[in-house]
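Model the whole thing, not chain by chain.
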Amino acid sequence: MSGLAAARPESSAAARPALEISGLWKSFGQLTVLRGIDLTVAEHEVVCLIGSSGCGKSTLLRCVNLLEPIDAGRILVEGVEITAPGVDVNRMRRRIGIVFQSFNLFPHMSVLRNVTLAPNKAAGKPKAQAEAEATDLLERFGLADKRNEYPDRLSGGQQQRVAIVRALAMAPDLLLLDEITSALDPELVAEVLNVIRELARGGMTMVIATHEMGFARDVANRVCFLDGGVILEQGAPADMFSHPREARTQQFLERIIAAGRL
Amino acid sequence: MRGLGFGGPLDSGDSILRSGGRPPVRPRFDQSALRSTLVALISTVVFFAFVGFVAVNAPGWSAVQQSFFNGRVWQESVPDVVPAFLTNVQLFCIAEVLILILALAIAVLRSLPGAVLFPVRLITTIYVDFFRAVPGVLIIYILGFGIPGLGIAGVPTDPFFYAVVALTLVYSAYVSEVYRAGIQSVHPSQEAAARSLGLSQFQALRYVVLPQAIRRVIPPLLNDFIGLQKDTVLVSYIGVVEVFRQAQIDEAASFNFTPYVVVALVFLVITIPLARLTDWLVARDRRRFLASAR
Ligand SMILES: Nc1ncnc2c1ncn2[C@@H]1O[C@H](COP(=O)(O)OP(=O)(O)OP(=O)(O)O)[C@@H](O)[C@H]1O
Ligand SMILES: [Mg+2]
């Protein structure tokens, strides 16, 4: 925020990771899903989380967004500990955008209102300003003509793009994407993935849970394989996909190849 | 005609075949739909004519006619009873507004999570259980006679006041359950999406959950309105001179039941349109649901 930091963005980025997770544990009753996750994401980095179904990718993202209370560990966003007791969770969440597999648009609101609701009500922007900014964003993602439509009149791909715009409207420092193409027909997947590629080019810091290995290879700076509640292996996509070190990673990738998804 | 569901679009082709020998000209309207409407109409008329015939020819008909459908008493009681109905309308309108507000507050309080709010949930749950368990008439009696009977200075003595309070308390218990069902029908992912954007719990409720919940419960709410409309006569027990009490007064004066028939007709005239509206809304929601289910 200070003039000094603004003048030297690169040095501050190098000094401070966008996201820092250490020793994160999470269980649902008897079931322990996350057993000590350590993950650091640098500013402008795109990290893909892969792993078999039920391994806890969604849970991890929901914890980072404070939608799930955690059992142990710390999560820092831009150097601020969001899991510290007594923090204002609403304020923290505004810095972290999340997009869900099932879009979760508000069906009773127009596209424009879906996008402006949080900037207007949570961030307190005047309505006119929120609408002008939302219109710009919608235009950028090819949705300008849909601004007055209701979500049920849009295709799945359009709905998911609106959900992405809705998260971006809060100008988050960090964007979490949870299998955002899994609920889409195959021919609609590309339009959503292209949006993410564009965001990555624009320098958005993202953590992406995905089953689209081709996309992960293409867009990720780093791929993390989640297994048994920990990040078992991580590395550059080229290394991870061609020379996985761990036996579990090899098995997982073989299954994926057999299913024709890589 | 077609829209009313008496026959699908395919039936028109059939009806040309069945009517035999006609040139295959596309009919201007759906003939089989017209036919089924006619059949429905005729069978209804025949049925009610039969019922009427049996009643009119029953041995006790003239006595019944005298005491329930007496033209002279009718003429005398209509100018009494119909204005008295305004009291019911007033009662209904005031109570309804209060019920909608109180019930919403109860439903929201009961839906709040968190251990700290357990006492709030407990109190509201007891409230709802209590007022759904005790017959409404008893509540009206207890409040209407009991509280003024305490003789505390400054406490209202107007029975109309207690009528409003009693109906509000009883109906809020039911209506809060309707609201609560609506709140629970909104998928938790909607609240998660709202919270993830940084909206507070109250804002998520106010802008995301409640608008969807209330939209879904409008038909059952209207259903409860119909019940409330009719239950406004119960306050006659504590001396509010409303339509039913007025009919009792007229009955006592004329030794004739016709005033009650007038009351019944007044309620029919008011309630049937509301019932039709409710059914129409339910049907519309159903169509929308089927359309959006794809
Ligand atoms: N709210 C919850 N209550 C109880 N158990 C849960 C809850 N949410 C998730 N789980 C369990 O936690 C485990 C991890 O779930 P999660 O959704 O994080 O997996 P995932 O890696 O996202 O799987 P997928 O690839 O299928 O989306 C699963 O066994 C799931 O059943
Ligand atoms: Mg998941």
